[in-house]
Amino acid sequence: MSRHVLVMTELRSGTLRQVSYEALTAARKLAEGGDIIAAVFGRDLPDVTAELQRYGANNVLYVDHEQLKDYATDAYLEAWTYVIEEKNPSVILAPYTAIGKDVSPRVASRLGIGLISDCTDVELLNGRIVFTRPIYAGKAFVKKTFREESRVFATLRPNNISAEEASDARAATVDKVSVDISPKSLRTVVEDIVQKTSSGVDLSEARIVVAGGRGVKSAEGFNVLQELADVLGGAVGASRGACDAGYCDYALQIGQTGKVVTPDLYIACGISGAIQHLAGMSNSKVIVAINKDPEANIFKVADYGIVGDLFEVVPKLTEAFKKTLS
Ligand code: FAD
């Protein structure tokens, strides 16, 4: 049975976020020959048709509007709802990012449809769409289906479905969608966005994360981790212990109440491994833990453990990687 699948893509600084390709890869599993429609939202949109087509989209919708320049809940709610109503897809896939988390439940509520959020996998079992999502802060996974498959809506956690280009990519048609967003309907307006300084690698999409905990002991201590992250082309993250202590910004917090990351390599430095921290990183592909305490809980989830002082171990790793990678 073929299905029309609508994928809500996401742009950052004019470039498609990786999770958009992951969602298109998931869409191909479900479409079974049906249309794969990719919707792009923003203002003065770049031409991303070729990329979207490579990952399987055969219809690209550009929803370009002044009010979509920066993310604002009400404006995106109007735009997403309009596109869904216009295209009437049987499956809607959106990223479980800050935007997707905020707008998807509102869209689902407005349209009176169900939503399965934060899915880590999607598959077809006996012809039914089955989503996998974590429960109990990632300690277990459940498989969920919709009772009726007339309208299926799910958000996908970044970095879980591996993005693959379509071997049978079809030519994509392009539509410009004109949506009516009245400034009067907007309860909040974004006046300005102040970009925080960062190494440039987005933590939630980084393939390598070097994370520090209270054991890093100071904001300056994080420079040692940043150097390792820079050499590896990764991003720096932190435990809540480190954020609470004021060593770094809460935007770096990983865990149950922070970001969930699933990089290829996670290097935990001076992090004890509290359950709330593990909730945000235990699905990383390879975990390396550096801790002075051989009994630290983090070693229970680590693939490689180094018992030692992070201020001795991390600079040595940085030097070694500098030599091997140069
Ligand atoms: P600590 O537990 O103090 O561990 C520091 C570690 O550093 C120790 O293991 C120590 O042996 C090691 N160490 C010290 N010096 C060195 C050195 N020189 N070299 C090597 N190792 C060294 N936490 C999160 O991280 N993310 C969350 O999202 C989160 N959400 C929470 C939500 C709730 C509702 C609650 C109650 C708690 C939450 N927490 C969260 C807090 C969590 O319970 C822990 O308190 C926190 O993760 C501890 O941070 P830490 O591992 O950096 O610090």
Automatic annotation (TrEMBL):
**Under what name is this protein listed?**
Electron transfer flavoprotein subunit alpha
- CDD domains (alphabetical): ETF_alpha
- The organism is Novibacillus thermophilus
Query: Could you read off the lineage of the organism from its UniProt record?
Result: Bacteria, Bacillati, Bacillota, Bacilli, Bacillales
A Gene Ontology molecular function term of the record? electron transfer activity
What is the cofactor note? Binds 1 FAD per dimer.
Q: What keywords is this UniProt entry annotated with?
A: Electron transport, FAD, Flavoprotein, Transport
| Family matches, as Pfam families | ETF, ETF_alpha
Work out whether the entry's keyword set contains Electron transport.
yes
Q: Which cofactor does it need?
A: FAD
The entry's FAD-binding residues are: 214, 239-240, 253-257, 270-277, 291
